[in-house]
Backbone:
C-alpha cells in the first residue's frame, strides 16, 4: 500500500507540467483490483457474521480465545508484515530498473510466506493435539475456517509470487504491471491477516 | 454463411455493434443456458424446497413431516429436473467451446468439462433422487426418511472438490488466454467461488450456525457469489458469441 502513496506523492513533486503529461498511475492490472476489492467484500461479510455470533455468545468466545497463543499469532503477523515490506521494496527496485534486486526481494517475500505457513501448521498441530478442533465449539470453527481460508490465499499468493519471479528472471518479459499486481495481491493477504489476527486473537 | 457477412467481418473482425455472427447452432446452445438456469432456480427455490435448504437441526419426525408437506411439489420439481438436467451439460459445453477458442489449448476445457460432469452427480442429481425416493413411499420408517434428508442435503451443499477443480481450470484458462475471449477479472470472480467452497467444508460436522448446510457462511455467501458469477458468465458468453467472427475456422 505504501507504493501507491509514494507514486502519488512522486507525481505531486514532479510538478504541474509533468502531472499533466502523466496520468495518475494505477499500480498493477485493473482485474487484480476487482479481485482485491471483491475479496474484501466477501471477507467483510465473514467478519460481520463472526461479530454477530460473538455478540450472541461473548463468554464462550472469550473463554475459547484464551486457548490461542497470542505470541505465535503476533510472530506470524510480524512475518507477514516483513514479507509485505520485501515485496513493496521489490516493486520499488523493479520501478528503478534494478531487476536482480527486485528478484532477490521477491524471493525473500516468498520465503516469509512459506515461514508463515510453517508457523501456522505448528500452531494448528499444537491446537489439535490439545484437543481444540473444529467441532469443539463455534469459536474454533471460526478459528480454523478463517485462518484456513486465509492460508489458501497465502498459498495462492506464493503461486502469484512464483509467476512474478518467472517474469523477472526472463529479460524479455519483466512487465512492471505484473510485478505490481503480484504485490497488490500480497498486500491484500497481509491486510486480511491483520484483521483476522485482531478479531480472533486480540479483541477482548 | 453468406459471403456478404464474411467479407464484412473480415474487414472489421471485432465490432461489438455488428449484428450477431451467423452461428445459429452456437446461439441456440447459448440461449439454453439462461433458460436452463431459470428453470433450475424455479425448481430448487419454489418447488423442491432445497433453496434455502431446510434446517439440519430438527428431529426425525420434523424431517419426515418436511417430506409429507412438500411431497407434491418435490415430485413435480425434481421430476422436471431429471428430465432437463442435461441442460447443465449444455451450459458447460458452451463454456468449453469458448475455452477451446482461447490460446491456451483444449486441456483446461476438458478439465472443466470432466470435473463438472462428475460434480453434477453429487451436486444436483443425488438430492433429486433422495427426495424423490423419500416421497415415493411416504409411509416409510421416519428414520429412513431422515437418512434421505441428510444424504440429499449433505451431498447437495457439500459436494465441493469437483467444482473447485472446474473453477481453477476456468480461471487459469482465462488468465493465460491472449485472445481475450473473457475479461481477466472474470477469472478472479471464479476464484472467489473456490474461497466460498472452502468455507463449506464444515457442513459435515456443523449442525447449526453459520457453517451448517443452511448457514450464512457455508450456504448463503457461496450462493450469492455463485449467482453473481453465473450472471457475469451468461453476459460474457453472449459477448463472446457476438465477437466471434462468423468466418472463424471451425474448432478441431
Residues:
Amino acid at each position: 500500500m505504501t507504493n501507491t502513496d509514494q507514486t502519488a506523492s512522486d507525481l505531486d513533486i514532479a510538478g504541474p507540467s509533468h502531472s499533466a503529461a502523466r496520468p495518475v498511475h494505477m499500480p498493477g492490472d485493473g482485474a487484480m483490483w476487482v479481485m482485491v476489492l471483491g475479496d474484501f467484500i466477501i471477507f467483510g461479510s465473514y467478519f460481520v457474521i463472526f461479530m454477530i455470533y460473538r455478540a450472541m455468545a461473548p463468554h464462550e468466545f472469550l473463554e475459547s480465545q484464551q486457548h490461542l497463543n497470542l505470541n505465535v499469532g503476533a510472530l506470524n503477523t510480524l512475518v507477514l508484515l516483513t514479507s509485505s515490506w520485501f515485496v513493496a521494496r521489490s516493486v520499488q527496485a523493479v520501478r528503478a530498473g534494478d531487476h536482480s534486486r527486485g528478484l532477490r526481494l521477491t524471493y525473500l517475500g516468498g520465503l516469509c510466506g512459506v515461514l508463515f505457513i510453517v508457523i501456522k501448521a505448528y500452531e494448528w498441530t499444537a491446537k489439535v493435539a490439545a484437543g481444540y478442533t473444529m467441532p469443539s465449539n463455534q469459536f474454533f470453527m471460526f478459528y480454523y475456517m478463517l485462518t484456513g481460508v486465509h492460508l489458501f490465499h497465502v498459498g495462492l499468493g506464493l503461486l502469484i509470487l512464483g509467476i512474478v519471479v518467472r517474469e523477472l528472471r526472463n529479460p524479455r518479459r519483466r512487465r512492471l504491471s505484473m510485478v505490481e499486481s503480484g504485490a497488490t495481491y500480497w498486500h491484500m493477504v497481509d491486510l486480511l491477516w491483520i484483521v483476522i489476527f485482531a478479531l480472533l486473537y486480540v479483541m477482548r | 454463411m453468406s459471403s456478404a457477412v464474411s467479407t464484412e467481418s473480415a474487414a472489421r473482425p471485432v465490432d461489438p455493434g455488428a449484428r450477431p455472427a451467423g452461428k445459429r447452432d452456437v446461439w441456440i446452445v447459448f440461449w439454453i443456458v439462461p433458460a436452463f438456469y431459470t428453470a433450475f432456480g424455479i425448481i430448487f427455490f419454489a418447488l423442491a424446497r432445497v433453496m434455502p435448504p431446510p434446517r439440519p437441526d430438527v428431529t426425525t419426525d420434523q424431517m419426515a413431516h418436511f417430506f409429507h408437506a412438500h411431497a407434491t411439489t418435490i415430485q413435480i420439481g425434481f421430476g422436471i429436473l431429471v428430465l432437463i438436467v442435461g441442460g447443465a451439460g449444455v451450459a458447460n459445453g458452451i463454456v468449453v467451446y469458448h475455452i477451446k477458442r482461447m490460446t491456451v489449448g483444449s486441456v483446461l476445457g476438458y478439465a472443466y468439462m470432466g470435473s463438472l460432469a462428475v460434480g453434477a452427480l453429487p451436486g444436483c442429481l443425488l438430492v433429486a433422487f433422495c427426495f424423490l425416493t423419500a416421497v415415493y413411499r411416504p409411509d416409510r420408517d421416519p428414520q429412513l426418511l431422515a437418512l434421505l434428508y441428510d444424504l440429499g442435503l449433505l451431498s447437495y451443499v457439500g459436494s465441493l472438490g469437483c467444482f473447485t477443480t472446474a473453477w481453477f481450470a476456468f480461471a487459469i484458462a482465462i488468465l493465460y488466454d491472449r485472445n481475450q475471449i473473457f475479461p481477466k477479472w472474470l477469472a478472479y470472480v471464479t476464484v472467489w467461488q473456490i474461497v466460498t467452497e472452502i468455507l463449506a467444508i464444515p457442513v459435515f460436522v456443523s449442525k447449526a450456525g453459520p457453517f451448517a448446510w443452511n448457514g450464512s457462511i457455508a450456504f448463503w455467501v457461496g450462493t450469492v457469489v455463485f449467482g453473481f458469477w453465473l450472471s457475469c458468465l451468461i453476459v460474457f458468453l453472449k459477448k463472446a458469441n457476438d465477437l466471434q467472427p462468423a468466418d472463424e475456422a471451425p474448432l478441431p
In short: The helical segments of chain A are 2-14, 16-21, 30-56, 58-65, 70-95, 99-129, 138-169, 176-202. The CA atoms of residues 64 and 136 of chain A lie 10 Å apart. The domain at 28-202 of chain A is CATH 1.20.120.80 (Four Helix Bundle (Hemerythrin (Met), subunit A)).
